[in-house]
C-alpha cells in the first residue's frame, strides 16, 4: 500500500510538469487569432462569434489534493488499518485542491 501511494504521489507531481502547454485545440486547429486583455488573459473569437478563453478546470488541484489528503488522513488515523482515514483524507483533499485550483484563475470570458 505504501508503494502504491508513493507511486501515485510521484505521478501527480511529475505529470503536470511534463504536459506541454499549448493553445486550446479549438484555437490551434482553426487558426484563430489571439487577443490579450489588460490583465494578461488570452482569448480568441470562435467561428460562432463568441469569445473563448482557457480557464483552469481544477483537475491538477484535484489530483494533488487527493494524494496529499490521503497521506495526511493516513497519518492522522492511527487506529486499525487506517483505510477510513485515508479515504476521508483523499476525498477532503481532492475537494479542497480543486477549489483552490479553480478559484485562483481569473479568466471570465463569456
Please render the helix and strand layout as text.
Blueprint: H1 2-18, H2 25-30, E1 34-36, E2 42-45, E3 51-53, H3 59-76, H4 83-103
Antiparallel strand pairs: 1-2, 2-3
Short description:
The chain is mostly helical and 110 residues long. The chain has helices at residues 2-18, 25-30, 59-76, 83-103; strands at 34-36, 42-45, 51-53.
Report on the architecture of this protein.
Pfam families: Rick_17kDa_Anti. Belongs to the rickettsiale 17 kDa surface antigen family. It comes from Novosphingobium soli. By secondary structure, the protein is mainly α. The protein has one domain. The protein contains 4 helices and 3 strands; from the N terminus they run H-H-E-E-E-H-H. The radius of gyration is 19 Å and the shape is elongated. The termini are far apart. The mean pLDDT is 76.
Amino acid at each position: 500500500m505504501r508503494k502504491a501511494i508513493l507511486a501515485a504521489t510521484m505521478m501527480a507531481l511529475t505529470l503536470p510538469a511534463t504536459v506541454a502547454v499549448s493553445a486550446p485545440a479549438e484555437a490551434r486547429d482553426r487558426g484563430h487569432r489571439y487577443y490579450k486583455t489588460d490583465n494578461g488573459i488570452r482569448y480568441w473569437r470562435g467561428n460562432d462569434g463568441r469569445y473563448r478563453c482557457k480557464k483552469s478546470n481544477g483537475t491538477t488541484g484535484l489530483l494533488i489534493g487527493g494524494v496529499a489528503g490521503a497521506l495526511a488522513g493516513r497519518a492522522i488515523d492511527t487506529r486499525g488499518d487506517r483505510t477510513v482515514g485515508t479515504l476521508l483524507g483523499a476525498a477532503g483533499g481532492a475537494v479542497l485542491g480543486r477549489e483552490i485550483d479553480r478559484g485562483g484563475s481569473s479568466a471570465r470570458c463569456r
